[in-house]
Amino acid sequence: MPKVKTDRVKYSEGWEMIEPTLRELQAKMREAENETHDGKRKCESLWPIFKITHQKSRYIFYLYHRRNEISKALYEFCLDQGYADRNLIAKWKNPGYERLCCLRCMQPRDHNFASWMGPNYEWHL
Fold first, then answer.
1. Average pLDDT of the residues in 50-65
2. Which residue in 27, 31, 44, 75 could disulfide with 64, CB within 3.0 to 4.6 Å?
3. Model pTM greater than 0.85?
């Protein structure tokens, strides 16, 4: 008999501690996505979304790498479920990239004169 697939996700231990903050950031993300783009340039309408993505990733990064408050299983769960950007966190681990706000800022093809620092280079939590 074949296995029955379910959509239920098994949350790792410690999820209750970080869930309220992640839910709050998800609500902010929905607001940013539904915000009108009237009078804004195309790239300006994406800045709030990048900022919230940065906040979620930085929150999980600090809990695991700096404060050691969450387990490796919970950290991997958050990365696998898309609560944090795995590639951005990998860049933060390298020297010189600690203050990087998004991966788009370091792609020269997205900016004039091949500069990699965008208008919102540094965001704070």
1. 95
2. 75
3. no
